[in-house]
Amino acid sequence: MLQKEWPEFLPKEQMDSSQFLYFLLNSLHNELLIIQHFKETPLKEDSWLSLIVHSWKYRVKSPISEIFGVQVVRLTSCSGGCSYENVSCRDIDFITTIFIPECESIALSDCLRSHCKENFLTDSKCDFCKKVGTLRTRLLFGRVPKVFVIQLGRYSLVLSMKCMLHFPLKYF
């Protein structure tokens, strides 16, 4: 049955456990999806971020998204003179991949901060002024779920990294 629903599944082959978990959560989410209709209300200037952060409730609500759903918000701004700012959010995710740098030891909280730090995209075209320049981007967690599933990116192009990851055990 699993192979019928998930054609990528290969019996007797080593599979990535995170791919299986994503398949399982996504399948359950789609089966339990609750369609909600909401009334449009005028947007206040100071409520755009709040609207984006809470929009997941109206698009993708299920018991699975309530427990595991994380929402990532991307802030992008033009540094080419027009100061255009764009806020976008992806649909709900169930697994967040955090990359571990090549080092001897690091705390999980530092990896999360690095994941959300400001980045500069050079030679990028601004959607508003159409000038090619540098765009600043930053990721925020608009919604952190009750159960936050983090996949650790512990591999370079070829080798597994040997960085010791420290995380608090008091919540486990």
UniProtKB/TrEMBL annotation:
Q: Which residues form the USP domain?
A: 1-172
Q: Name one GO biological process term.
A: protein deubiquitination
Q: Which GO terms describe its molecular function?
A: cysteine-type deubiquitinase activity
Q: Which UniProt keywords apply?
A: Hydrolase
- One cellular-component annotation, GO: nucleus
Under the heading InterPro entries, the entry gives: Papain-like_cys_pep_sf, Peptidase_C19, Peptidase_C19_UCH, USP
Pfam family membership, one: UCH
Check the record and name the SUPFAM superfamilies matching this protein. Answer: Cysteine proteinases
By sequence similarity, the record places it as follows:
Belongs to the peptidase C19 family.
Q: Which PANTHER family match?
A: UBIQUITIN CARBOXYL-TERMINAL HYDROLASE
**Protein name listed in UniProt:** Ubiquitin carboxyl-terminal hydrolase 50
* Organism this protein belongs to: Frankliniella occidentalis (Western flower thrips)
Taxonomy of origin reads:
Eukaryota, Metazoa, Ecdysozoa, Arthropoda, Hexapoda
The UniProt gene name for this protein comes to LOC127750323
